[in-house]
Amino acid sequence: MYCINSENTLKKTCILVSALSLPFPGFWPRFVLLGLLTPNAMSDKDTEELEEKEVKPELENPQLARKPSAQTLEAIKRKQLEKYHKAPEDEKETIECNPYVIFHQALKNCQPIIGLSNITKGGKTYQVPVPLKDSRKRFLAMKWLITECRENKSRRMLMPEKLSLELLQAFNNEGPIIKKKHTLHKMAEANRAYAHFRW
């Protein structure tokens, strides 16, 4: 919404108009030349549209972002190759050496199927079992992996080493993250009687 105000300058008005990137209606040029057109504050009824801005390539460092994940995959590959060379001939075929396969399978093994949602009925809060969306499953699996590496591992180890250990344990369906997933499933099974509160 715009109003005519004789106190503002042409430069300020033009900057505001170009910043909004709106097309000029037919009556604007005369007021813009005179420096009389200025924007008003947005009313309470109007809504603002937000746009996601792309990150400029010069502000991000893709090599720095790729380094920890590349080091993690390298550590997984190194450990699996050591295991492969030490294993007898008949066991070598069962050992997976591809770090990408290990990573995706470990992440899949960490994903819970059912979660708990707090629902209040009659002044009392119940933990109700609910099925999780795929995005929520992935989020919980990654969150548990990162939290476990940050809090419960030795501080002298680097993050890629910690993450590779956790991923290898999860790949074999072992470790604290798998226990956490099973604990969540047991709690959901115990609260099965409250499932009807979901509706």
From TrEMBL:
- What InterPro entries is this protein classified in? Ribosomal_uS7, Ribosomal_uS7_dom, Ribosomal_uS7_dom_sf
Outline the extent of the Small ribosomal subunit protein uS7 domain.
71-192
Instruction: Write out the transmembrane intervals.
Output: none
The segment annotated Disordered runs over: 45-68
User: What Gene3D superfamilies does the entry give?
Assistant: Ribosomal protein S7 domain
Annotated Gene Ontology cellular components are: ribonucleoprotein complex; ribosome
Q: Which Pfam families match?
A: Ribosomal_S7
Which GO BP annotation is one of this protein's? translation
Keywords from UniProt, A to Z, are: Ribonucleoprotein, Ribosomal protein
**Protein family:** Belongs to the universal ribosomal protein uS7 family.
- What protein name does the entry list? Mitochondrial ribosomal protein S7
